[in-house]
Amino acid sequence: MFGEETAILAGDALLSFSFEHVAAATKNVSPDRVVRAIAELGSAVGAAGLVAGQIVDIESEGKQVTLEDLEYIHIKKTSKLLEAAVFAGRYLEGQMMKAQKELENMRGW
């Protein structure tokens, strides 16, 4: 019933809504912490995160994929999103500075 174009637009709408929701529904948290959480999410889904992985994924369709390319796709499309969830949560709860070194060492796992 719905084609690829509609699916892409639905994804765009959901992604936009995620930023809207964090910005509008987060209560009793300082604006600077909300902005840091939103920036973390934006970085994860942007050109250096999900989009980069998706480009390589699309370009790899029907081809033999190297382990290096597969790891790149997984890091950019999956790991970056999980990482963002952890870091955004820490920013919002105000705990980021307490364990920043340990958390920063976790990036890229």
TrEMBL record:
A single MF term (Gene Ontology): metal ion binding
Keyword Magnesium found: yes
Domain of life assignment: Eukaryota
Entry keywords, A to Z: Isoprene biosynthesis, Magnesium, Metal-binding, Transferase
SUPFAM superfamilies: Terpenoid synthases
Coiled-coil region list: none
Cofactors demanded by this protein: Mg(2+)
Transmembrane segments: none
Biological process annotations from GO: isoprenoid biosynthetic process
Family: Belongs to the FPP/GGPP synthase family.
UniProt name for this protein: Uncharacterized protein
Organism: Hevea brasiliensis
Source lineage: Eukaryota, Viridiplantae, Streptophyta, Embryophyta, Tracheophyta
